[in-house]
Amino acid sequence: MSWDSIESRDFLGGVPAHQLSATRLLSSPDPSRHHLDEQPGGDLRNGALRWGSRFGPAHRPPTAGLLDCFRVCRSRLDQYLARRKIERGVRLYGQNEQRLAVKIWLSALRGIRHRTDKFTLLGHLYQAYMDFGKYRESLEFANRQLGISEELDSAPMRAEAYLNLARAHQTLGGLDRALSYARHALYNDCGGGSTAGCVHLTVAAVSLELGAFSKAMDGFQKALAVAQAQNDNTLLLQVYVGLSELWRRLRDAERAVACAARACDLGRTPRALDLNTRHHRTALLQMAAALRARGELGDAHDYCNEALRLAAVAGDQGCYARAVRIAGDVYRRKCDIGKALRHYEVAMGAGQALGDRLAQMEAMDGAARCLEALRLQGRICNCRPLEFNTRLLEVATSVGAKMLVRRVRLRLAEIYTALGDNNAAARQKRAAAAWAAPACARCREPLAEQPEPLASLPCAHIVHHACMPESWSRRSTRSASGAAGAACAATECAECASPRAPRAPPPAPPAPRTLPSQDFPFGTPPTLRDSDLNSVISDHSSQQATSSV
């Protein structure tokens, strides 16, 4: 490179090239100092004079703003490219290219600078990892979202971050923490849109796991109102799935099947392209569970196989574990205990690998029922069911599933009675009676003791269908206004008429934490073996071949 190319009007201002020479550049009026040995705190004006005395009066010293301008332009370019990557990932995710979309989002996360865009990108990554069944990794993204919302002091962002934390902790089995996060999401400004509906849905789902059926019904009713107001089919599908699970646990199989059917219909509508396939898989699994409860085992198995196929294509490990567990329930109802136990073992191993304590707890309950059936048939002794139910009781107690705890304690009481330990059996019965079973809001008789039709009131309490008077019927409720219907229900509902203690202020939200790799209060569950997985797949493939014939 020549001095003429360096000395151009674009860089140094147009001074003739003959005024620059290597001798002039290296010459120094003061031999004791070098040209670059300037004091950091020196006068800028004197520095400009010295520069002019060396290189000519037409030369100007290069300002520091040039480098800053370059950095700003580079940052804006990175931000623009990151936004384009986010948009491309959203399109790919909608086209069922989830893994490629996540790869693009992770590359965009390294170059994004804007806080709002980073919050949105973390939300996309959170949802993708939840769909994949990687709940612990999704929890990290939710924690980072909460940090950004605190920095920006944005109430809607804080509400979304608390919602994501609640959903992750619910799946990981931390129901108390999930409920606390969901309540604090409600206390922030949710905007009155779909975010508020998702928060009500999460509160309802957690309350359902805790055995608070009236609170769960109240949350589902509020989420249903938001979904209908916002015309949000995705939220509406999730509400019907939750209602179907509520009625199934209360042993009203007809209502459970009806709600699950509406959820499946939403997945088949022309607007189903807007829905995430994960919700469609969830609707299929709920339909299988409801049909199994009603006794239609063949149709339940078909829905379960379809959900298994979609979960294998999408890589949804959580949905796969639940589908295998429901298939085990179907085989148990068919009295095929061997296949049922093999399916439950696969589901337990998958749940343990994912950290999904709810799925693992449900699979353990199914295996415990199989062992109880074998014990009653005299094919095994009382020792193995006693040990397994004791471990299941520890899991259910740590999670907070009160209804399951009551059922396991009653099962343990029968085992202790068979062993001749009447004192231990009496202790288990007293502990089971400590939790009040759900009761009818009109006649105060217990619910879920036997299959029977039920109904819900405008005040979210649940009654027997025979106890529901004409004034609470659906037609009269529709004819009256919402407030008038609720007031009429409150005058005759025994739960609403009873005096209530004032509600305590909400506690402080728990600090976000990173769960360890092993966060189970019980021993290591059975591992997932390749032979068991291959046997489960072969069972489903043979069943599909038989049904096709």
Automatic annotation (TrEMBL):
GO terms for biological process: positive regulation of neuromuscular synaptic transmission; synaptic transmission, cholinergic. GO terms for molecular function: acetylcholine receptor binding; protein-membrane adaptor activity. SUPFAM superfamilies: TPR-like. Residues 533-549 have a biased composition (Polar residues). Keywords: Receptor. GO terms for cellular component: neuromuscular junction; plasma membrane. Signal peptide: none annotated. Residues 502-513 have a biased composition (Pro residues). The keyword Flavoprotein does not apply. Residues 77-154 form the Rapsyn myristoylation/linker region N-terminal domain. Residues 25-44, 498-549 are annotated as: Disordered. InterPro entries: RAPsyn, Rapsyn_myristoylation/link_N, TPR-like_helical_dom_sf. Pfam families: Rapsyn_N. This is 43 kDa receptor-associated protein of the synapse homolog isoform X2. It comes from Galleria mellonella (Greater wax moth).
